[in-house]
Amino acid sequence: MNRARLDDRLADLETDGYLIDASQDDANQLYLSGFTGPDPFLTLYADGEIHVLVGGLEYGRAKREAAADGVERHADYDYEYGGREARNDMYARFVRDKGVESVSMPPRGPVGTADALRERGIEVAVDADDRLREVRAVKTDEEVDAIREAQRANEAAMRATEDLLAGADVAGDGDDAETGVLLHEGEPLTSERVTEEIEVTLLRRGCALDQTIVAGGAQAADPHDRGSGPLRANEAIIVDIFPRSKATKYNADMTRTFCVGEPSETLREWYELTERALDAALDAVEPGATGEDVHAAACEVYEEAGEPTFRTDPETETGFIHSTGHGVGLDVHESPRLATGGEELEPGHVITVEPGLYDPDVGGVRIEDIAVVTEDGYENFTEYPIEFVVG
Amino acid sequence: MNRARLDDRLADLETDGYLIDASQDDANQLYLSGFTGPDPFLTLYADGEIHVLVGGLEYGRAKREAAADGVERHADYDYEYGGREARNDMYARFVRDKGVESVSMPPRGPVGTADALRERGIEVAVDADDRLREVRAVKTDEEVDAIREAQRANEAAMRATEDLLAGADVAGDGDDAETGVLLHEGEPLTSERVTEEIEVTLLRRGCALDQTIVAGGAQAADPHDRGSGPLRANEAIIVDIFPRSKATKYNADMTRTFCVGEPSETLREWYELTERALDAALDAVEPGATGEDVHAAACEVYEEAGEPTFRTDPETETGFIHSTGHGVGLDVHESPRLATGGEELEPGHVITVEPGLYDPDVGGVRIEDIAVVTEDGYENFTEYPIEFVVG
């Protein structure tokens, strides 16, 4: 954690403190508390100190793990298994005990807690800027290293994927499967089978995973379709992997698009165009440039080639239909946004750059690298090659 | 989803509608919308109909997947990539478009959205009872089958664990490792190695996983310690596995405690006592009994044997220091609670029963089964044997 940046960004709050009520699943909570509590707990930042309040069951582990200045437990506020009101009373006592009469909460903090504190006379303001999210966006060297390490696991999983695809046979007339379906050891090679290979590879390297995308053909034309069923020759197969290190909790993110066999002329053009869009967007990455600038650089490549983007047609369902990238950290999607309205880039921002083209009649192509913004540009720490046709 | 129960529980709301702003990570959202959206989206229940609002990128998939009566996209409200205020304006228009001037939100709904709607003249009340959580607690037959299926994967993973432990050697004077450490293929058998085996087994069976517990010795005395480092002979090793089916999104949950070698007399007594507490608690499970009754049944077994519980000593850090169980469904921890204050059991509740004893000087023992409450008692669908000493 960058404590100086945290203190700086929270210095001009108009409230006495900053309150988070969430489990470790909330990246702001994990960042501020440093504690991997599985159930919601309170973290209060006030007077430059971080205070954590947990249940008795978590107390020992929280004392050992938390990056907080103080850890307390429910029993310190005479709370036993009581009802909801008793719990909210305890929360109010904990906040007041720190000399705090007004708190800011992040926009996605729980309204139940906010309203309960208000009923108890504590002022609650919404920190609409989500300052902790902004603090988290700029990584320390240690955080960058954690992401880099997760990216190495990512590349091992991508390698396993490419090997599986490159080694596949293609069903012909004599086979049981439909002609053109990829075969692995005589069985149709499905999205699910490739995903399993990816996830096992990541687990063996200490990473957890959420929702890997292995989508071919028309499925690849929906950027959020995770893919299912048999993969086929001559179609574009999008593989998007975003592992999370179990040890550090930091994510990585990378996409490659593969084709086994002969892609159509259109797919070849799309791939070449997308490589150019990737290069153009990366070229635009430097401190002072905005996320919007980087997005514009990718859009221009597509627009000049006559492909629709959200800039030329906000309702288009084909073409370049998403943003150019996003920050990566404790959340796989975090600040900054590389999109229209995207904020200014700063050294330490870790971002993806991931242009793509989509049309159900053609398929989908996306290429995604992950990079850190440096003092004079960026360092791309994606080592995986960019190659379309495999096998 | 039990739509009749949903309609019934939402019938007497004092607001016009019920609003959820969350991603699929929120079980209420996944349940009500039926849509696996990765980013937060709105679901509004009003006049007996479910309406979903998503971004353009999710629209096609939401139309196919969602269990809603209507799916709309941001463009239907003339929203393009705008700022926060424009987004909140769109949310208010979506709500009003359904004839809704007041909404209830669950206690953990986002305060940012609640306050933004209030600023736009829409009344927002907190549904402190979390009614959707209550609706979710009672499962349909289909939901029970989904949990049962995840439990079969769980048992395969537990079998792999027991085989690994039972097949382990114990380091002696001639070995590199410390005497008493378990060895697998000549290397110390660690919590991490066993966890990996569990997770790979679950992945191969279509399950995701979050935080498996494999904790031995003093680590097992902290019920939430996930365990790390070499496992040892003659100590109690707690293995708590809670997989989630990727297809259905339903969880299972089971714990066993194993010992390779010779457990101490105290550990043997604890194990026997915990088996008795499990039986006593299960015997108390029937419709009309409360979660508090079931918890009391387990506590009494321990208390009669002189072991501390939260009932006899709210601040104890040893003995039976957690609740007896919890509901399982889309969340691994959900209603009902089998604890002091726990609600009345109903047919269709799927619950864990998991008594245990803990003391850093002795170790930890926990045995956990999963069962469904039936019309006249319960059906325990845990098939895994209860045996302490293995190998």
UniProtKB/TrEMBL annotation, chains A, B:
* Domain Creatinase N-terminal positions: 4-138
- InterPro entries registered for this protein in UniProt: Creatin/AminoP/Spt16_N (IPR029149), Creatinase/aminopeptidase-like (IPR036005), Creatinase_N (IPR000587), Pept_M24 (IPR000994), Peptidase_M24B (IPR050659), Peptidase_M24B_aminopep-P_CS (IPR001131)
Q: Residue ranges of the Peptidase M24 domain?
A: 146-375
Record keywords = Hydrolase, Metal-binding
Cited Pfam families: Creatinase_N, Peptidase_M24
Select a single GO molecular function from the record's annotations and give it: metal ion binding
Q: Which family does it belong to?
A: Belongs to the peptidase M24B family.
- What is the official name of this protein in its record? Peptidase M24
Q: Look up and give the organism this protein is from.
A: Halorubrum salipaludis
Q: What is the lineage of its organism?
A: Archaea, Methanobacteriati, Methanobacteriota, Stenosarchaea group, Halobacteria
